[in-house]
Structure formats: structure tokens, C-alpha cells
Amino acid sequence: MSTNRIAAIAIIFLAACAGWYVLGRTTAQRSIESHGRLGTEVEALWGTPLRQESPSFSADIPGTDRGRGIMPVKNTVTVDLHADYRKKGLIWYPTYTCGFEGAYTVTNEEAAAQKVRIRFNFPAKGATYDAFAMFIDDKKILSPINTNEGAGELIELAPGASATFKVAYRTRGTREWRYTMDAKLGRVQNLDLTVNTSFRNVDYPEGCLSPMSAEAVPEGMKLTWHAADLITKEGIGVVIPERLNPGPLTSRITYFAPVCLLFFFVLVATINILYKVNIHPMHYLFVAAGFFAFHLLLAYMAGIVNIHLAFAISSAVSVVLVTSYLSAALRGGLPWKLAAAGQIFFLVLFSYSFFLEGITGLTVAIGSVVTLAVLMKVTAHINWDEVFVQPAKKGRPAPPPLPPVPPLPPSPGIGEEVHV
Fold first, then answer.
1. Quick one: which of 112, 84, 87 has its CA closest to 98?
2. How far apart are alpha carbons 29 and 40 in whole angstroms?
3. Whole-structure pTM over 0.85, yes or no?
4. CA-CA distance, 251 to 385, in Å (whole number)?
5. pLDDT, tens digit, for every residue of 54-102?
6. Which one of 184, 226, 336, 356 is most buried, by most CB atoms within 10 A?
7. In the chain, what are the domains?
């Protein structure tokens, strides 16, 4: 293999890298623009992240216009979170429906009757709420509601009497759900909060308490927080898991493409040496184009069909293109089965490792080490001086050899007679 061929192959490789860089930037830009433009539309339809505050209770101080906070003696909350993803452009948005039920019991521990003011704020101002209901014990409260200002009620408790404030609703949100305690009290008694999810890969927002127990159920997870007397500034929350997004995924796969092509070029060069097949740099150029076809199809099909289906179609097209071309161009001199296996390993499997979050790097590292071991094994006996020997330079043809000169007749010796 001459230096000129190696240089030509290197130029082809760099040109392919430039193409993948442009395609990766284009796909990433489409995803960013889609996320920024369509994210606002999704929040307008499905709402923002929900942050439900615990209702506040206060008793009027006689003779003043001020009140003092009352701590509920029992807090029972049940939340149902059902993930309902919505796709816009190249992005899946983690939207969900939320069913909330809360029951809060307050007791008048004073010797005189007290007027208790109840204040309830909605988790998202201006949002839409279905099946909304408020109760004082078993009495339903029917009053005008302004979700921007919240809801309020005034009740009177006799000495030693208790009342339970109940509230329930259904609404929609995005990304995460949070529950916060009454910040003025900084303390909560007899907390019993349960969150039922429709998903199992649960995560928690930063600055939130982890559940005391997390139980897998057929529908998803059952998360519970129990506390007899809790003092904390942290809240409770659940993050809706992200779904695999086609845009960012295809960008990462595209940026990784040069590594796949480099491995395959090494495989083709090894076949060239072992099987003594004359593989021209133009063959490398069409192989690079076949690899590029995989990422081009994947980038534009991912926004139309399922990402797994798009990956399968793009892989099949690329493998057929490269394998059939090499087999036809080299007229059977190339072991096409080996070339197909190499492309499936380096392009398809390496690219699919990006679907496996958290172990992509490990998968590529193992594949690289296995490839190195195989190449070291099969090329250990090769004389590299013979492989990289420079061919003789071509110049003018050498002149034909001169005809031989006939020998001269022997000269007469002394005393010999010369005949004329």
C-alpha cells in the first residue's frame, strides 16, 4: 500500500467527518428550535410543572386584624400521576395527568371558640381543573373560584372541636410534580402522603425528600412518605421520566459516526492485506457514502416514524448498499460476509449502544478492545516491510541494448608470410 493511497484514504475520511459534523449540527439545531418553539405550545396545552402547597390554617387573634397559624393534627394526601407523553417535532415532552386528594384535620385546643381561616392555593395559576371539590367534614363548599387567587373558607370551631378540610381535583402538568409544606410553620404532624405512578423509573427533584417506602405495583410504583412529627424545609416531589428523544439521540449517533467508519476502514485495509485484494481509494469513498446514508436516513425518518423502526430501516439500507457495492466492484475478491459482519458490528451495534443510556461508553470500549485483539491475532504474521514497500517510480523506457561488436582478426606473427 503506497503513501499516496494512504493519503487519499485519509482525505476521504476527513471529508466524511466534515459531512457528519454538518448533519449533526443541523439535527441538533432542529431539536433546539423545536424544543424552544414547541415547548411553549405544550405548556399552554398541558400546563407547567405543578407545585402544590399545603393549605394554610390560621385563627383570628381577638382585638387585632392579625392571625396565628394553626398546625393540622393530621395530613393525608393521595396523588395519582399518569404519564401521557406528547410528541412535537423531534422532541417527546414528559406530560402527565394528576389526580389530587387531600384531607387536613385541625383541632381547637383553646378554651374558647375560634374562627379558623382556610387558604388553599392551586398548583398552577390559571390552569384548568376537573372534578374539583372542597369539603368541610362532609359538607361540600360551593363558591366561586379564581385559580389565580386560590380558594378560602372561614369556619368556627368550638373548644376541643375538630374539622377536616378536604380538597380534590384533576389537572395536567409537565416534567415534575411537587408538594411543599406550610413555610410559616416549618413543621407537619401525622403526615401520610402516597403517590401512585404509572411508571417505574422514578426520580426525585433536587431538594426533595426521598420516600420512606417505594413499592412496585402492576401499574407502576407506590411511593409513601410517613412522619409523626416532621420538621423540614424540603418538599416532596416526583420527576416524570424522559422518553427517548429522536432529535438529541440522532445527533449523538451522527457525531460518533467517524469512529465507526475508522474501524471499518481498518477492517477493509486488513482484508486488502490478508486476501491481497486491490481496493482502490474510490472504493473507500463509496463505502463512506454508504455509511453516511445510514445517518442521513435516520436523521430525517426519526421525526416521521418510530425511532426504532427508523433505525432498523436505515441500518438495512446502509448494510445492503455497502456490501453489494464491494461485492460487485471487487468481483467476488472480497469476502462479503466478513464485510457485512464488520459493518453490522461497527456501525449498527455501536450506534445502537446510544439507546442504552448509561452503558454506551462501556459498550464501545468493549467493542474496541475486541476489535484490537482480533486485528492483532490475524496480522501477527504479516511482514509490514513488504506491505508498505514503495513501488518503483515510472520514467522513460530504457534504450535498447547496442549490438555486439564483432572480434578483430588476429594479427600475423613475426616470420609469418602475409598473403594479399
1. 84
2. 17
3. no
4. 41
5. 999 988 877 677 778 889 999 999 999 999 888 776 778 889 999 999 9
6. 336
7. 3-31+245-381 (no CATH), 49-239 (2.60.40.3680)
